[in-house]
Amino acid sequence: MSNAPQQTAATAENTLADIVSHAKEYGFVFPSSEIYDGLAAVYDYGPNGVELKNNLKQLWWKAMTQLNQNVVGIDAAIFMHPLTWKASGHIDGFSDPMIDNLDSKKRYRADVLIEEAVVQLEKRKVELENARENGAIPVKGMPWDNQGEIHDIEGKIKYAIDSLTIGTPFDLQNAMRELEIGEPGTGSTRWTDVRQFNLMFSTQVGAVAGDSSQIYLRPETAQGIFVNFLNVQKSARQKVPFGIAQIGKAFRNEIVARQFIFRMREFEQMEMQFFVRPGTEGEWYKTWKETRRRWHEALGLPAAKLRFHDHDKLAHYAKAAVDIEYEFPFGFKEMEGIHSRGDFDLTQHQTLSRKKQNYFDNDVNPETGKPYGNYVPYVVETSVGADRLFLATLCQAFQEETIVEGEGEEQKTKTRKLLRLHPAVAPVKAAIFPLVKKDGLPEKAHEIYNSLRHDFRLVVEEKDSIGTRYTRQDLIGTPFCIAVDHQTLEDETVTVRHRDSREQTRMPIAELRAYIGEAVSFSRIFEKL
């Protein structure tokens, strides 16, 4: 018998508050050390959250290192020699412009306030231009000319963008005044001076305090790859072009950490640095840009909610940079960055460490007829935030639909919430329900569990009505529910209920492994790439 919905409404837009509440209630994400009122911008992953996050990380890892013969992995230490961060520029230049409001005592990033003000100015400019195109507005019998206000707005936008490009505290301070930026919510314009705030966490290493030296918690994972470039190249017997992938924690003392797990002080990155022959970086940049977007779409993030955002302001060493943005409930925001970094990183480490980072390329250059010889490789980077990918996946999967059950006078309409996760990344692959807690059905359910537990993460649930159990599994994204009834004891068959359609299929227990395995395999995602 089919229980498929006769009518399904469009998925409702859910607020971030809905996502946060659901994540906590159903064991995905908790505020860290909540019994002590938590710690700002630090979160813990619960039983279902850690499974989902691990599945996403494994999916990324296999897509990088298993689908590409020329990409290998590494797991570098969080602590690194302090000169690493001198070479990378983090000690001298890794800071954000901080400003405090004197009335509320709250702290903000000046550049973010200015960027938000520019967005509002651009909206106002569009409104004025539309009014102008739609006809003059009479004022005291004369046509209304808004060109002056448009020019004024254009001037402010240019001034703000120039200030952001220069980026010094002095220029940002003047932009705050020029744009008359007030505090969000209060409008207060009483600000402190803008000052730079280094984002790296520091600590001391050494058994004796007097002999301690300052080291840092890494603010990014990329440098662990760069300092191991030659170690990996030689031990893995790789030829350029090749990549080194890594998943690991990074730490940034963010001034303003907000929007749930989107911006945290402790977060996880999934990065791949791809080392290429100088002159080929442009093509590889385009290749990885398109490859990474296809990966997100294959995972289930719709093309309409993804977009590229090319960087207008590049780092001094960068040749090109683009973000893959996802439309979160709070707007389009960066989820992954692809960067053409040139030879900056390896050259910097070569200079400061005095250790050559050259690669000898014995492939023949068709233009000269000789080997390419020694050079410092260029780098194309792909870097996705594991936590941001987790949040995007959760936001996309969290859906609400209207379903109609029954027919005629017995017809009922109700709302169903569910996590429409891809089966390959769902925390639980199948839940097994004995229809009643007697007659040998619980024992049979556990027998099925034991036969499949080596292959899939499963749960056995006996409490509450079977309808309530279905609802509970929908809310955590379980793709299949397996009902064990009295017929099961007679013919070794069970009823499999599908999360998305709510359709039910009767099948032999012996077929479950292959049936579930087909649906939850990473291959279902990889075949879309």
TrEMBL record:
Keywords of this entry: Aminoacyl-tRNA synthetase, ATP-binding, Cytoplasm, Ligase, Nucleotide-binding, Protein biosynthesis
SUPFAM superfamilies linked to this entry: Class II aaRS ABD-related, Class II aaRS and biotin synthetases
GO terms assigned for molecular function: ligase activity
The keyword Transport belongs to this UniProt entry's keyword annotation: no
Binding site for ATP: R252, N253, E254, F262, R263, M264, R265, E266, F267, G385, A386, D387, R388
CDD domains: GlyRS-like_core
Primary localization: cytoplasm
Cellular localisation: Cytoplasm
EC number: 6.1.1.14
Reaction catalysed by this enzyme: tRNA(Gly) + glycine + ATP = glycyl-tRNA(Gly) + AMP + diphosphate
NCBIfam families from the UniProt entry: glyS_dimeric, PRK04173.1
Role description: Catalyzes the attachment of glycine to tRNA(Gly).
Subunit structure as annotated in this protein's UniProt entry: Homodimer.
Protein's name in the database: Glycine--tRNA ligase
Gene behind this protein: glyQS
